[in-house]
Amino acid sequence: MFAQMMIVHHQGAIEMADLAVEKAENEDVRSLAEDISAAQGPEIEQMTSWLQAWGEDIEPMGGMEGHGGMEMDGMSQGEAMAELEGLSGTDFDRRFLELMTAHHQGAVTMAEEELADGENPQALELAQTIIDDQQAEIAQMEQMLQDR
């Protein structure tokens, strides 16, 4: 379940990051978005290969509806994307950083749950990597927001 849910979660982050690569005014925001997309794509491929090897569905049963890991400031992925698409300039940059911070916090929570309850050594290792990487990016985004 961790892999299924994290794939969907990462796909949402990539969708937001790709929009930021297109729309961000600040080069540091654009660069961060490129890094996020580049890091999460291979993780999706890794989790997808696990699920295929285990004979499991790639998509979680019932989707991500109601899963706290997908909410950002109380918004769904679709609502967050719609808000971001309607913004430009520094307003876009600021809101992207706020929403991606919330999105990453959801991923950290999901990964912490996997560390507490999971059994597969590969999944546990990836969960720790996600925690480490995304907490570092959260700190970077919080600093970028303070600098604005």
From TrEMBL:
Domain DUF305: 1-145
InterPro entries (UniProt xref): DUF305_CopM-like, Ferritin-like
Stated name of the protein: DUF305 domain-containing protein
Lineage, highest ranks first: Bacteria, Bacillati, Actinomycetota, Actinomycetes, Micrococcales
